Here is the input.
Amino acid sequence: MSFDSITEAATRRLARRHSRRRVLGLFGGAAAAVGLGAIAWPSRAAAQGTATFTFVNNTGQTIWPGALGNAGQEVPNGGGWELTAGQSLTVSVPDTWAGRFWARTYCTFDASGQGSCETGDCGGALACNGAGGTPNVTLAEFTLGGGTSSDFYDVSFVDAFNVPVTVAPVGGATSSSDPYQCTTAGCTVNLNPDCPGALQDVDSSGNIVACLSACSEFDTPQYCCTGAYGSSSTCNPDTWPVDYAAYFKSSCPNAYSYAFDDPTSTFTCSGASGYVITFWPFGATSSGSGEGGGGGGNGSSGGTVSARSTIQASDYTAQNDTQTETTSDTGGGLDVGWIQNGSWLQYDSVDFSSNACTQFIARVASGAASGISGLVEVRLDSLSNAAIGSFAIASTGGWQDWETAPANITATTGVHTVYLAFVSGQPADFVNVHWFTFA
Here is the structure.
């Protein structure tokens, strides 16, 4: 089934009235203003009656965004396009527009724009042109108020998760009494690696490319909140045979985890000139039990770990002169800190596959004093080998003020032991690391 046709659950949500918020075009959506760099934002004053959507690709690899307007709405930018790593693109729509966006992944298109995608495929076309996509994707959804009423926006896993997405308003007034007014929603956490086994959407090689919702996987009234379960009082994940919604909600509390997840998932804003939709690192990872996670030193469980998955820094197999601590970064868990010159972390059996990785991306923070900095280096198979890439890090403002840092690396294939080596000319702690990935 394709999400260009509104399901019974979506129709019910669209018709339902809310005391403070209303739901959007289909399912849910959210936002975040993380690491947007020096993007110049168009103003609504400069283009009266329009709003802008800026798409930022922070995944470290190419994605192919899809776009679909609700009935009677225009299709932005042909409905689909390529967005390479690090690229951003701004499109304008009427300020009464309603619809949704998603990221297609692992796509191949020929010169005529025909091909296929593992997730979000819209009939094999690069430009979807009004066609919906396969519902194995994260959705960012909007209903704009035209300047006379509030905009509504959210990020939804009601169908599935494939890529971390955040949505952030450009402008608009926040409210100390309403955390969902003109604030960032969504999250940067990759939910694919630990996806429950029953919900894993795998490709022909057995890699997890998406984590389906219980509704998409089992299509029962109870999981889909339809029929006898078609109200917030009767559709309660606590009473499901398995509370699969909790997996999504625990890692991404500001996104829809099931159809009636409105109170902490729908955001409103008045006065915004547009929105920034940011896509964050993800990667296909080998299919397994989906019960991963854990604390420092868990390391490899005997199989390989996809280099393109989000690898928690605390999941090392060996280390030197570091400690773990609870992190306040999005997604929670542990970070590795107390890192100084000569510290290192080891990760066994990291599979770069036959498709070479050329970029290293890490989530880092630093509260180092002025003048203290260092390098985060990637080395393969031995600490004595030369680094294949590195980036410099100085203070980010605090030991829990997190940034996503990219670095180019030598094209790498195959399975390797990965070392993160830390080099500094000063004898002081200079960086914390939460997670890293390759692309």
Q: What stands out?
A: Helices lie at 8-15, 214-218, 221-224, 245-251. The domain at 8-279 is CATH 2.60.110.10 (Thaumatin). Residues 8-15 form the longest helix (8 residues). The two ends are 31 Å apart (CA to CA).
